[in-house]
Design goal:
Elements lengths: L16 H16 L6 H10 L7 H14 L8 H20 L29 H5 L3 H4 L10 H12 L3 E4 L6 H14 L7 H24 L14 H14 L4 E5 L5 H7 L5 H9 L29 E7 L3 E7 L9 H13 E2 L7 E2 L4 E8 H6 L2 H6 L12 E7 L2 E2 L2 E2 H4 L16 E5 L3 H18 L3 E6 L17 H7 L5 H11 L5 H25 L26 H11 L10 H8 L13 H14 L4 E5 L14 E2 L6 E2 L12 E5 L5 H13 L4 E5 L10 H8 L2 H5 L6 E3 L16 H6 L7 E3 L4 H14 L8 E3 L16 H4 L6 E2 L13 E5 L2 H12 L8 E6 L1 E3 L3 H9 L6 E9 L5 H9 L7 E7 L10 H16 L2
Helix pairs in contact: 4-7, 9-19, 9-20, 10-17, 12-20, 13-24, 23-28, 24-25, 30-33
Organism: Paenibacillus mendelii
EC number: 1.2.4.2
Family: Belongs to the alpha-ketoglutarate dehydrogenase family.
């Protein structure tokens, strides 16, 4: 059904029964005081006047029954009721399965579906049977022009089986499903385009197509991942911006893969043609046809290819509304930008200026995510991200999803890439409405966008559009697609582009002429040629300075992270005050009450309290905090307990929300059981709100394995590739306690292997005070040039180890130390022959072993714990080594296998600083393919052996 078939209809046809009564009530209020009703109702009442009386439909039904019954004879016939019921089933089937017969494929090439359930014959209904049934008995909202059941069935089939494929039957909420069906049946074409809008749509389609053909002819052999075949995506995004801006959104966040990105950048984000042409013109090895992931298209070894880059644009809707559009940077890991964009959106919606949870205004920002059809069905990150839809810590008031469906994944047919009938079927499990639309029907595409935006505005939930088109070229413009899809591409040679199809439509209606169409194409090409000429006349651009990959020699700026002791004492007291009507679980209350004297003379502060005090003092500084993870409210190891539960009422209370000193929000959420999507969300949240200390905590450190793409493509390299700063904190529980290979290692070696250009800080701490100061330093560095992610190997057994607890003075007077030297060692430097360097838990265990051994003289041995592994604390290490003139050996001690942990990172750095003649050697487990033993007794034996070897003179 094209968008101009049905005349514009009154919106009151979308309401009946109680809903119509509600609208009448709103109208009565409006007549007394227009400002007393929602602005959207004000607008409808001004345009359409009073709604109709509620008995309209009922009276038509009664009249129909009387007419059909002729005094009651037919109506009393049981066979009539049977036909009536069957007709109702037929209507339900048309609504539910009409999409199977819908004309949504521009090329008509698809597997034929079984559509017998849509035919009257299946229910043994004849035309005469249906003609005898009043239309309103089987279609409550039938237009006045539809009189009987036969006309109703024909019209409904017309609606549900032409350019739209509606799938709403899986939507559980009845009010939503009824609204969706009524909108499809009576409201879809309520706002047809006028002549000016149609001309603008044609012009945009000409721009989209001309841009691709201009690049193809001008930069022969260079990849661009053309949009051709789904050109309507650009006008659809234009319409989304208009609709959502009109609804008051100040930010629109977009995410998409590389196909069509250059076109979207040019026409939706407003990136100048000249800038894009320059990136093609001056690519240093453009004639070598570099591969998709190479840096050849970009200048220098850093940065990213142009079809991965994002952009920002501000557009004004009218005179008062200004909307900022953000297209997120995205690597070739196609769908991994999804949670990042959702994180952007939630960050833009949250107000973090007051204590308590950040308050979300879902209308202030919206997410629009474009998917590939093969990737939507194939990538696991998709369902992980769809799952955010209704979760308190992640929902954003509804994401609009568009599957840019060209029906091929690289060279793979749909039948080989998914088991579902449609690529969109995954969304059904999340109750997301789906509309499939033909990419060659421009006005139908815009009608779907309006439906999606109105649904999001009304119900604050996700909506999915499956834009079915094709791919005019191969996977890239250097690829020959006929080697794998010969029949398809033979047909495509003769298939008109959508701009030509739409021009033919408008010409046939007399709205534009052939001459006007050709003139429009000429104007667009002249604009592009002019931009290219300017690029050529400007000459070769100057090569930018490359970032050196040499390790920096400077230290992080000195930041005061200590807090006066009276302040700490006051905060600690306030943290133990709970509402009078709130009861704390008895066992937990006793544990928390032990903290009362922690900051008094002789007190000790453990890891959990140090963390809570860091959060509290950061909030007191006016810095908002967001922390999420699978068990972050309590903490996997029950050390945090920042959300308390009343054992009698089940109520919740977070002490940091009622802290008198707090001047910013504290948002803490237990996350869904996924890592990639949650970490991507938190990264996006932090990038968009750099003032917030954002923390993601893995349940166990090795669970970060499941988020490796986010770590590799965004967190580790985002600043180098996209100049995208983040201060995200990753807490990764790490330590060998005999729990087996899956819960021991956070894979420290991987983060050290990726460490370069000061892209992040990697730390493995051994005292509570160190954690306090490092968190406060990280918070202080947000929004500065020094901001970077913090990768922290957080403890497990050390959480309650008394050796990790710190004195109060360490918080009120101390500072973070990249290297710690336990007291009582190295007091006679001339006698020290062995220097042991280590990091994390093994250092604490070594100290305990040295105290417990019968040998009390350790003058020949000195131990230093490397708390910050990267950036490497060069100055501290050199100072320590330089104190011992008779040093014979430097030992690196670790509990991880030799090919894991920090050894391969530390070895060359230690050797380069070791005095001449000093041996550098490794003490630890041998190389292994598995991180740790699965047997506790073997672990204990190994641990004792390596500690004994380190202490053995």
């Amino acid at each position: 059904m094209t968008a101009d078939i049905v005349n514009r209809q009154s919106p009151w046809q979308l309401y009946y029964g109680p809903n119509l009564g509600y609208i009448q009530e709103q109208y009565e209020r409006y007549t007394e005081d227009p400002n007393s009703v929602d602005p959207s109702y004000q607008s409808m009442f001004r345009e359409w006047g009073a709604p109709p009386a509620p008995q309209h439909t009922e009276s038509r039904q009664n009249a129909g029954l009387q007419a059909a019954g002729g005094g009651g004879t037919i109506a009393a016939d049981p066979s009539f009721y049977k036909k009536l019921v069957d007709a109702g089933k037929l209507v339900l089937n048309i609504r539910t399965y009409g999409h199977l017969a819908a004309d949504t494929n521009p090329l008509g090439m698809r597997e034929k579906a079984d559509t017998r359930l849509l035919e009257p014959e299946t229910f043994r209904l004849t035309k005469e049977d249906l003609t005898a049934i009043p239309a309103t008995l089987i279609w409550e909202d039938a237009p006045a022009t539809i009189q009987n059941g036969w006309e109703a069935i024909q019209e409904l089939k017309h609606i549900y089986t032409e350019s739209f494929g509606f799938e709403f039957g899986h939507v559980h909420a009845e009010d939503e499903r009824l609204w969706l069906n009524r909108h499809a049946e009576t409201g879809m074409q309520g706002k047809t385009l006028n002549t000016k809008e149609r001309e603008a749509l044609l012009y945009r389609l000409i721009e989209v197509e001309s841009f691709e053909t201009f690049l193809q002819k001008t930069f022969v052999g260079q990849k661009r991942f053309s949009i051709e075949g789904t050109d309507m995506l650009v006008p659809m995004l234009d319409e989304i911006v208009r609709e959502i801006a009109h609804d008051g959104a100040k930010n629109i966040m977009m995410g998409m893969a590389h196909r069509g990105r250059l076109n979207v950048l040019a026409h939706v984000l407003g990136k100048p043609y000249g800038t894009i042409f320059s990136e093609f013109q001056h690519a240093p090895n453009k004639d070598l046809m570099p591969s998709e992931g190479s840096s050849g298209i970009s200048f220098g070894w850093t940065g990213d290819v142009k079809y991965h880059l994002g952009a920002h644009r501000s557009v004004k809707e009218g005179e008062t509304i200004e909307t900022r559009i953000t297209l997120a940077n995205n690597p070739s890991h196609l769908e991994y930008v999804n949670p990042v964009v959702q994180g952007f959106t939630r960050a833009a919606q949250d107000n973090r200026t007051a204590p308590g949870y950040a308050q979300s205004d879902y209308g202030s920002a919206a997410a629009v995510i474009m998917h590939g059809d093969a990737a939507f069905a194939g990538e696991g990150i998709v369902p992980e991200s769809l799952n955010f839809k209704k979760l308190a810590g992640y929902q954003n008031g509804g994401t609009i999803h568009i599957i840019v469906n060209n029906r091929i994944g690289f060279t793979t047919e749909s039948s080989d890439s998914r088991s579902t009938y449609y690529s969109s079927d995954l969304a059904k499990g999340f109750n997301i409405p789906i509309v499939r639309v033909n990419a060659d029907d421009p006005e139908a595409c815009l009608a779907v966008i309006r439906m999606a935006c109105e649904y999001r505005y009304r119900f604050q939930k996700d909506f999915l559009i499956d834009l079915v088109g094709y791919r005019r070229h191969g996977h890239n413009e250097t690829d020959d697609p006929e080697t794998t899809q010969p029949i398809l591409y033979r047909k495509l040679r003769d298939h008109k582009t959508v701009s030509n199809l739409y021009a033919d439509n408008l010409i046939s209606k007399g709205l534009v002429s052939e001459e006007q169409f050709e003139q429009l194409k000429k104007e667009v090409l002249e604009r592009m040629q002019s931009a290219l000429d300017e690029v050529k006349n400007a000459g070769e651009r100057q090569e930018p300075a490359k970032i050196t990959n040499a390790e920096t020699k400077r230290r992080s700026p000195e930041i005061v992270t200590s807090v006066p002791l009276p302040n700490l004492q006051a905060i600690n007291r306030d943290l133990l005050k709970w509402p009078e009507d709130f009861k704390v679980y008895g066992k937990l209350e006793r544990i928390l009450k032990r903290r009362e004297g922690a900051f008094e003379e002789g007190g000790k502060v453990d890891w959990g309290l140090a963390e809570t005090m860091a959060f509290a003092t950061i909030l007191a500084d006016g810095k908002p905090i967001r922390i999420t993870g699978q068990d972050s409210e309590r903490g996997t190891f029950a050390h945090r307990n920042l959300v308390l539960h009343d054992p009698e009422t089940g109520g919740k209370f977070c002490p940091l929300h009622r802290l008198p000193q707090a001047r910013a929000s504290f948002s803490i959420y237990n996350s869904p059981l996924s890592e990639a999507s949650v970490l991507g969300f938190e990264y996006g949240y932090n990038v968009y709100s750099p003032e917030t200390l954002v923390i993601w905590e893995a349940q166990f450190g090795d669970f970060a394995n499941a988020a490796q793409v986010i770590i590799d493509q965004f967190i580790a390299a985002g600043r180098d590739k996209w100049s995208q700063k983040s201060s995200l904190v990753m807490l990764l529980p790490h330590g060998y306690e005999g729990q087996g290979p899956e819960h021991s290692s956070a894979r420290l070696e991987r983060f050290l292997q990726q460490a370069a250009n000061e892209n992040w800080t990697v730390a493995n701490l051994t005292t509570a005070a160190q954690y306090f100061h490092l968190l406060r330093r990280q918070a202080a560095l947000t929004e500065t040039e020094e901001a970077k992610p913090l990768i922290l190997m957080s403890p497990k057994s050390l959480l309650r180890n008394p050796r990790v607890a710190s004195d109060p003075q360490a918080f009120s007077e101390g500072v973070f130390m990249p290297v710690l030297e336990p007291s009582g060692q190295g007091e006679t430097p001339d006698q020290v022959e062995r220097l042991i360097l280590c990091s994390g838990k093994i250092g604490v265990e070594l100290a305990a072993a040295m105290e417990q051994t019968e040998q009390r003289e350790w003058n020949w041995l000195h131990v230093a714990r490397i708390e910050q592994l990267y950036p490497f604390p060069k100055v501290d290490i050199e100072r320590i080594i330089g104190r011992f003139p008779n040093l014979k050996e430097i030992v690196w001690l670790q509990e991880e296998p030799q090919n894991m942990g920090a050894w391969n990172y530390m070895e060359p750095r230690i050797i380069s600083r070791a005095p001449s003649g000093t041996i550098v050697r490794y003490v630890g487990l041998p190389k292994r393919s598995s991180p740790a033993s699965g047997f506790s007794e073997i672990h204990q034996h190994d641990q004792q052996r390596i500690i004994a070897e380190a202490m053995n003179r």
